[in-house]
Every structure is written in structure tokens, then in C-alpha cells.
Amino acid sequence: MLRWQIAIQEYRGNMTIEHKSGNINKNADGLSRWALPNTTDNPAYVPKSAQSQIPIEGINITDDSDGFTHDWCTLIPAFEFSYKTSIHASTAKTPEILEKGWNSKLPVDTLKKDLVDIHQTASSFKLLLDKVRHHANQSMNDSFEYAKQKWDKSHKTPELKVGDLILVPTLNFHNIKSLNKLKASFAGHIIIKALHGTNAVQVELSGELENKHPNFPVRLVKHYTSSDKELLPLRNETPLEVPPLDQSEEKKVLEVLKERILRGQNEREYLVRCRNPKNEYEWIVAEKIPDLSACDSKQEHKHDSQNTINQWYSQDTTKTWS
């Protein structure tokens, strides 16, 4: 509405646009006195003068259009459209609502070439609106096509059908019996029970997922890929050979850490460190040590862990320690 008022002021000649103070629609009040090529009578109620049947000021079209490349009359359809779609102060409704019950969205809706009640130069104004509308529609279509191409390149919708095996995400599953750090990102494989269009699938949940909602968006699920063993059951796989620890290997005592005398017996045991990692520390009797004198003593190796020795001390409280 402000654009039409500025246009009127640029071509107004001796016409002035006045606004009434208060809550009355200023646009309707100003446009209720828009100029006509000739001086005519206005049968409508004018808010400013509270009178009817008063003459509207005429303007000299020749003087106002002098020096411009377009005719002032080509803007008359826009003024008429603005006036008819503005709420009038006296009726609180637009003239178009009172005349036909609805407001036109654009002036092009009311400007038809086959009508006789419009100005003879209004076709140029209609042509301008048609070009603007066509350009806007073309720009919107190009924008939608560009966005669709970018989406299609980065998002590929999986082809799912009933009976396929899929994996469902566990991101929002909070009552699964596992730690959050150890919880798998997907659960499955799960069978698709039904399809809800192309956006969601319904699956058959069981076990700890039985109380979960069975519908999942297609963008969050993914196909379950079977392993080679399931796809090719006749393939012979060579198992990995893990060399077992030879338990029959004779223990080689590397170091004597501590000695003790058994209670009630005249036998001496030694806490020794062997070569075999499985029996690194062990209490054995002197008869099982091939060369006791050749073994190193604990006092010669201060780097041995005292905590490890104390652990072996506490294994049997019935022994007498020396």
C-alpha cells in the first residue's frame, strides 16, 4: 500500500493525501481519495469530512506525465486494486468483500482483456504482472530442482520389501541390558513385517526389544548383510592354528625369592620364579629344583616386586615362615 501512496505523491499535481489520526486504517483513508483523470462525484462515505456526494479533486494528467516515459494512466488499475482490497474506515471491510465476497490476490485476477470496465491502457500493466509471475514461478521451479538434485546425490533410499532382513538403530533405546559405551549401534537382524509407504517400515521385535515401537523411518535402518559362511556354506575355511602352551615342558627355575619350613614337617619350600609364564611364581620343594645352589638369590635382585611376594606369602596361613 505504501508503494501506491508514493506513486500517487509522485504524480499528484495539486492533489494532497491526508491521513486521519486514530485507529482508522490510514491506507484506506488515503487511498479513498485517489485521483481520477476527470473530476467526478464520489458516492462513498468519506471519513475525513463525514459527507457524501462530494467532488474528488481533478488533476492535470498532461502536466503530471510530462517528462516521464510512461503514462500515468497505466497505474490506475493498481490504484483501483489497492483501494478495493483495503479495509474502509466506515464499513471495516474491503469494497471487494462487499461487492463479490472475496478479495483478489493479485491485480491480474481482475484485469481481463475481455472486460469493458477497465482502462484501455491496463493491458500493459497486466502484461507486466504476467511477466513477473512467470519469472517468479521459473525461479521457484529452478530452486526446487536444484535442491532435489543435491538431495538425490547425497541420500539414497534403500529398496526394501516385506520379508527383508534389516538392522534397526538403538540410539534411543535406553533400557537395553548393556552399558551405553558397549551398546551396539544397530540391533538385528529383524524381519520387515509391513511397509508404510516409502518413508517407514514395521518390523517384528522380540526379546528385550519387544516393548519398543515397531515402526522405524527408512532413513535410519539399513540392510542386513549375511556373512560369507551363510552365503557359501560349502566353503572350507582353514582354521587359525594357535600353538598351545606345552605343559610338559620342564620348569626352569630362574630365581629363588623366599624360603619356608612347613609346619609339622621337616621340609623346606622355596618361592621361585620360573620361565613358564603360566607358573611364573610357585612354591616348590628343594628336591624339585635341579640345581638350587646355582639359582640366584632374592637379595641379589632388589628390583623384584615386594607386592608379588607378599601375595604368595598369604596363600597358606598354616605354614611356618622363616
In angstroms, what is the radius of gyration? 49 Å
Low-confidence segments, given as residue ranges, are 11-19, 31-69, 298-312, 317-322
Mean pLDDT: 66
- Structurally, the number of domains stands at 3
Number of helices: 8
Distance between the termini: 109 Å
- The side-by-side strand order for the widest beta sheet comes to 6-5-4-3-7
Instruction: Choose one word for the global shape.
Output: rod-shaped
- Share of residues in helices: 10-25%
Summary?
With 322 residues, this protein is of the alpha+beta class.
Account of the 3D structure:
This protein is 25% helix and 16% strand. It has 322 residues and is of the alpha+beta class. The protein has 3 domains: 2-127, no CATH class; 165-231; 253-321, no CATH class. Strands 6-5-4-3-7 form a 5-stranded antiparallel beta sheet, with no helix packed on it. It has a 4-stranded antiparallel beta sheet with strand order 10-9-8-11, with helices on one face. Strands 1-2 form a two-stranded antiparallel sheet. The chain is rod-shaped, with a radius of gyration of 49 Å. The termini are far apart. It comes from Austropuccinia psidii MF-1. Residues 306-322 have a biased composition (Polar residues).
Task: Give the SSE map.
Layout: H1 2-10, H2 26-31, E1 41-42, E2 54-55, H3 61-64, H4 76-84, H5 95-100, H6 122-154, E3 165-169, E4 186-196, E5 200-203, E6 215-217, E7 222-223, H7 228-231, E8 253-261, E9 268-274, E10 281-285, H8 306-313, E11 320-321
Antiparallel strand pairs: 1-2, 3-4, 3-7, 4-5, 5-6, 8-9, 8-11, 9-10
Region (Disordered): 295-322
Organism: Austropuccinia psidii MF-1
Protein name: Chromo domain-containing protein
